[in-house]
Amino acid sequence: MTSSIAWGLALALTSSLAFAQTDSGANDGRRWLAGDHHVHSRFSARYTPDPTAPGAPPVPQLGGDGNHTIIQNAEAAQRYGLSWMVSTDHGGPLHARLNAEQAWPELLRARESVPGLILFYGMEFDTPGAEHSSLIIPRSTHEREDLLRIESRYGRRQPWPEDPGRDTEAFMLEALRDIATMDPRPVMVTNHPSRSATSLGEYGEVRPHQLRDWSEITPRVVIGMEGAPGHQADGLFADGRPDPAGSRGIYRRFPTMGGFDQMTARLGGVWDSLLGEGRRWWITATSDSHTHISEGGDDFWPGEYAKTYVMARADGADILDGLREGRVFVTTGDLISGLDMTVTAGDRTATIGGALAGGGEDIVVTLRVRDPRAANAGGRTPSVNHIDLIVGDVTPPGGDRDADTNPTTRVERRFTAADWTVEGEVLTMTHRLPASGGPRYLRVRGTSGTEPEPLVDTPGEDPWSDLWFYGNPVFLTE
Composition bias, kind Pro residues: at what positions (predicted)? Predict the structure, then answer.
């Protein structure tokens, strides 16, 4: 990293903290803390048959699908401005033992080596009947035993010989019911939900009805999905040239849109369909780091490109509370480093992840966005081109569990530079909504580009030239 980029990242982090601290009293001492819940290490092993023992479980090869130590990942996360990170190695035959006996001690050493980073123990759970999820274990004296219990009992690829009965939707629901009884309860986020989709609206291993099932069974465990998947460097060679054989997110069948999964990016799509039923279903953004682009991989370091910001105190329990409650916004390429959405009716106020009861007054939406002047890790200084205030109606769920549209979703207001005021790095704008609109939700997105909607990403696309941010919603209730 050049000294100018390092300085820029430090300045961006300082600016973000100052932005949050201006409202520290109203936020109960909380501020925006950037993190990443999907990071692999050398304990994401590949498995090869043991030639000396036919029929025996395959042998895990450390570094086979992730070549960094947990300590290296933690150091990189801190270097790129993250306050928290989850170590999430994925499984295989009898992987639970590898996690408990080898990954766990290295995670403890990483906590000692990088004490300024709040480091969670977890895994990329091989989701029964689906694909993958980030499983975040709350910090406790029994966190190793908690993960061992979940992976041993419910990991889809854990048994040897293989057990097809573990790869069913019903088994996932059984797992969630058990996980919900744990104290403290873990958090789970659905990873790259449309990576196996074949086209727009034609889903693969993860379908909308599963998201509904999971959110209903354990709304405080399965809290949402990756809006922006990792592997965003797949379209680049190590020297930064476009790789025509690569695609952002390694979405080989149907591409991402502005770097985001179609379930999030499509206006009025899956995410809006879930929000339109009143579901508290949140989005995140991650690196899915396995091997860095400079080493021939498809990935950026944790925090180098994507960040998930949580409004929380610098405390593991409060960070997980922020994820559960949706006090989250996400950004790519450090397009922004702060986002406050304040929704007011009379003397009542709600912010991102919250709800506001109506009372006959007009609704005033105030947005404060920090657009940092410092260079990002790509050496660019992107600016926000426009910001959308999106509104959707909330109505009772219909009978179609795979519904993936909300026809009421619309861009209520598009803000450009002519519509906001600038004070230093902070952009401020307001909009008034009538009181008589019925139950609704409000959410915000913005981009560095001029396109009105996220475009389908092309092979070899430069991820640094197409940046977006998304905020989780505020609900208006009657």
Answer: 51-60
- Give the helix/strand (H/E) hosting 136: strand 132-137
**CA angle, residues 421, 426, 428, in degrees to nearest 5:** 40
Phi, psi angle pair for 148, to nearest 5°: -60, -40
Residue 21 above 70 pLDDT?
A: no
**Which residue from 89, 159, 73 is spatially nearest to 123, judged by alpha carbons?**
89
Going by C-alpha positions, the residue among 410, 414, 409 that lies closest to residue 446 is 414
CA atoms within 13 A on the CB side of 189: 28
Average pLDDT for residues 36-45, to the nearest whole number? 98
* Correct CATH for 3-477 of 3.50.50.60, 3.90.1010.10, 3.20.20.140, 3.40.50.300: 3.20.20.140
CA neighbours closer than 13 Å in the CB half-sphere of residue 83: 21
Q: Where are the alpha helices (DSSP H) in 180-304?
A: 208-217, 262-265, 270-275
User: How far is the C-alpha of 269 from the C-alpha of 225, rounded, in Å?
Assistant: 14
* Residue 298 DSSP one-character state: S
Q: How far is CA 28 from CA 311, 313, 318, 397, 447, in A?
A: 10, 8, 11, 35, 30
Backbone angles phi, psi at 121, to 5 degrees: -90, 140
Beta bridge partners of 152: none
Strands (E), 45-126: 46-48, 59-61, 84-90, 118-126
Tens digits of residue pLDDT in 347-378: 999 999 999 998 789 999 999 999 999 999 99
- Which H or E element spans position 112? helix 104-113
**Encoded tokens for 399:** 């009978």
Residues 406, 466 contacting (CB under 8 angstroms): no
Tokens of 37: 């819940």
Locate 347 and state its tokens. Answer: 């003397």
Residue identified by tokens 């306050």 is 83
Residue 155 to residues 64, 163, 165, Cα–Cα distance (Å): 19, 10, 11
How big is the chain, counted in residues? 478
Instruction: Using the predicted structure, report yes or no on whether residue 447 has a pLDDT greater than 50.
Output: yes
Reference 260, options 269, 248, 272; nearest CA is 248
